[in-house]
Amino acid sequence: MGEKDRSDEALRGQGELTYAASDAIAAARAATSDRYERAALLADLCRLNTLYMIMQAGSGHIGSSFSSMDLITWLWTEELVDPNSGAARADTYFSSKGHDAPALYSLLIALGKLDFDLMHRLRRLGGLPGHPDVAVPFIATNTGSLGMGISKAYGILQGRRRTGKRGRVVLMTGDGELQEGQIWESLQPVANEQLGDIVAIVDHNKYQSDSTVAAVSDLGLIEDKFRAFGWEVKRVDGHDFRAIGDAFAQFARVVNKPKVLVADTIKGKGVSFMEGIACGDGTYRFHAGAPSLDDYFAAVRELTGRINAKLAALHQPPLTFTAAPQPVRVAPSKPERLVVAYGDELLDIARTRPDIVVLDADLLSDCGIEAFKEELPYRFIECGIAEQHMVSAAGGMALAGLLPIAHSFACFLSTRANEQIYNNATEGTKIIYTATLAGLVPAGPGHSHQSVRDISAIGSVPGLVAIEPCCEREARFAIRWAIEEHTRSTYLRFVNVPMDLPYTLPTWYTLSVGRGVTLREGHDIALVGYGPLLTSNAWLAADQLALEGISAAVVNLPWLNRIDEDWIWHTFSRVGAVLTLDNHYVTLGQGAMVAAALARAGVRADVRSLGLTDVPACGSNAEVLAHHGLDVAGIVRASHELVRLTPHVP
Amino acid sequence: MGEKDRSDEALRGQGELTYAASDAIAAARAATSDRYERAALLADLCRLNTLYMIMQAGSGHIGSSFSSMDLITWLWTEELVDPNSGAARADTYFSSKGHDAPALYSLLIALGKLDFDLMHRLRRLGGLPGHPDVAVPFIATNTGSLGMGISKAYGILQGRRRTGKRGRVVLMTGDGELQEGQIWESLQPVANEQLGDIVAIVDHNKYQSDSTVAAVSDLGLIEDKFRAFGWEVKRVDGHDFRAIGDAFAQFARVVNKPKVLVADTIKGKGVSFMEGIACGDGTYRFHAGAPSLDDYFAAVRELTGRINAKLAALHQPPLTFTAAPQPVRVAPSKPERLVVAYGDELLDIARTRPDIVVLDADLLSDCGIEAFKEELPYRFIECGIAEQHMVSAAGGMALAGLLPIAHSFACFLSTRANEQIYNNATEGTKIIYTATLAGLVPAGPGHSHQSVRDISAIGSVPGLVAIEPCCEREARFAIRWAIEEHTRSTYLRFVNVPMDLPYTLPTWYTLSVGRGVTLREGHDIALVGYGPLLTSNAWLAADQLALEGISAAVVNLPWLNRIDEDWIWHTFSRVGAVLTLDNHYVTLGQGAMVAAALARAGVRADVRSLGLTDVPACGSNAEVLAHHGLDVAGIVRASHELVRLTPHVP
Questions:
Q1: For B571-587, what is each residue's pLDDT tens digit?
Q2: Looking at this predicted complex, what is its ipTM?
Q3: Exposed, middle or buried: residue A507 (CB in 10 Å: 0-12, 13-18, 19+)?
Q4: Which of A166, A389, A604 best tests the B interface by mutation, with the highest count of B CBs <10 A?
């Protein structure tokens, strides 16, 4: 599930990006009447276009897109009855794993079901979101968090039964996705209801995130498992179009049982050096990020070469591909990487603390704990995509006297394992939950990954203190405080995007529960928040306000659910206005707590709160911050409105 | 998982309660050297004492306690190595299902491992909590919410591996509990790690809550499932001590695989008319509440008769049992039952709204939807104990054009399915989540069931409006508003405890988003909150304050995550102080939002917030409200402190 920004090195190369335009696609599809050859050609064209989209976006899941490409090409061209066809039985398809959205988009574009211009708009505001969203035509349900697909299919079919409609629901799961408990929770009800119109396909590419499924959390006997839950099971080569077609034909003869097609696929299939099989037990390099330019051009050569070789064998002329300029991106110059600093400090402490064990839910590199695993493998436990199990296992380890530190993305850890975190808290043990990829950015993956309600989701867990550091130094303080000072559990919230920071913490600064630090003095308005994203924007907004003669303080308050009212009084009683900034929904974020603390402390400043108010948009980071009014301009605008209420005291 | 208060009718009967004191237990255990006969005698004595404890407490799970009684009696007397024995290999036992805590308590008391006086203190403050808690000796982990046990066992064993300890972890699951996805999420990791020291016992009593497992959500091939996940499986009669003993002996010979014992048991085993098998497919009456006095005395006659008949067959004198007076309880005189009113109004609306479908997670009667199921069975979907699946299925149904209404206890619905609720919200569909058993009371089941962080957990879900009605009339308004007026999703939060209410809503009152209603005018202080529990206590506190010359307003604000700042200004700008009242943690409850809104609206009143600040206590409702300062006296006390700050303006 990892999300990486395309590295700036990748942008230094030469050359243009390549895609197949509509006419090239039409020519290829007309080149043969053999439906297997036609599907193979189309799948390779879509691979080329998928790569183009990911290069344009700067990120996206290649491996997962390529492994499912042949399957979905067959489905959409030969198997599914289009829901817009008006047929009595129309089919619905969706990807439960969601990561292969670029593959599906490129296919839907190639089939004319999506506007061709959207090819250039992956992960852009108003374009194609990083994970599937029902706002896009032919996307049946929102996915991106794993394991919900079969339940959704059950609901869709139960709905159809009650509204007189017919047709199948075909959905794609990952193999790593089968580690999620909800998959197994959903299997038996589907079988009990005899929903024979559900067909699940397991894209069994043997890799998840950066490693093999077997190395992360082996799946055991997949086919036996589905059969034990009452499903009809077939297993095929997921790159053999004839075998896929035959399996669906056989499924059609089984009426009262849900079906699962376990499709053996190859992650990254179609570009030799991107194929998972090539890296053995090593790290798979093409899970989530855009490739380097060298890799990209090599992949384009291989794909275009194969496409034209196939056409030549069919006595057809080669295709003409279309070129587009590379997008220009400005990389930060000396970015702070909070998660890296965290992981480094954690490892340093762990060397002298044998009670520390690290748990991970298949997001090793995004959580900064690769070095920990390398150096202390016996104290590292990979749980796979099984957040509930991981958190309860951490609970058991804490009961046994260890100090467990559980890792995942904030969006999954705070929600999927929400009750398990609470259950652990009621035992009074000490556990650290490290939640990365927090907040609105990176905004490319979309709302499934933008964790903007985790403060609310875990903020009332008894004894659990939540902290978000604003820089590498505070990140080191935070993990050290959680291990060495706090007696109960801690939730550490991290922004993953590396960024240049315009501020530094005072040299004397140390963490003190509920108390923040004034980074910059000011008397007209105080901008108060947490984390690198909005503290940076607040600082830059204060620069702009200063030019207008408005004196704005910038206050960093890393405590997300603990606020010291004495500190509040001391810090804000002589300022005219307070603007709280949440990289989170405003309803129950830090800003609400700060505003409440201002009221309880008797501070009479004018107060306003900025933050999210609805589902976060998908797009480039700059687009999305502006869209939600959380960019520098948005903070300046809100400050103007607030200061206008307040008589200016020079 | 249902929790019912013992009905007041049950209290009108005659006679005293009966239990076996220490000497009677000792006499019975000494009566035979046959370990199977001895275990059977002890199990029946513990059944008698379990019933006594449940009668004293007024609630508790008889059926689940009795079905597992024989199994745990065998384990604790013949199989487990006591963790306090100092042996090189010591075993840990816990109940993952947790509902059978009274059985385990009565056994631990009988074995002298718990203080005998605790017999009289089930579900009382400082006594034995309704569900297992590590504060009690020999309770290894906190349970009460389902499905976490195997993960906890995994963690405990991984912890032991790393701290040089050995021994088994034996845990008991329910059969309905197998519907929870986390069970299946946890099985494969345990098998992959070859944790042969984990033994799970499935108390396969064929009933869950009020109905058969088969009727709710059939389990399919239990043994095949566990085998497919790599577990060693045995199946026995869970009331045959010899078979249980043999199975454990066989398990001891399998080293590198986790084991599961599927134990066929009878819910309510040991009292003929309480046995599940006796009610066929009908409603099982002894899941969660205390029995009627008639049933109780009949059960005592049967148990004592059998115990003494067994002793007679062993040529032993009959036992002398101990009598204790029945507890005195005052029932409300004209209680309002909000959930019943809700269910009635929902059914009324549904008769003319064919798009409404009702989903349930095995809490039918506690959610007020029995009549709905009876009258509109085709629009009722029982999902079993599978909250994640239920919520995603509701999402699918909404996508298919229906209006799904999903039901469970607040503690499970808001947390177990937290990410699924969010995922649905991002699709912009309309779903109603009805969450019952909200808040601090009933306080007997303990913290797993006391939902005091759900406002926080779901309050930031985009578009989701949360409401808690304060009376039957407002309950009817709320469901009607959610169905007929609100365009997005709604979370309806209900207190289940029937209570007399000292206030009524004004006749002109209707719901208006974010705006409350002043039930009683006052100018020194305003008490603002929601729901029947604290609004009642606020009213009674205002009565007391009035006697002291303090004029207290009582304001009902049913909106839990929407607050209209104009209304805030209008309502509170002329009051000296505001005390917010949360039947929830104070950190991110309604009180924090009200305080924040007061600050943003520029209201200058002194503000303080009452609510939970740590894990809720277990006990009688009155004990626990007083313990947390949320009873009438606590509100008066807090009002005094707050008004003292404020100059009294007559």
A1: 999 999 999 999 999 99
A2: 0.96
A3: exposed
A4: A389
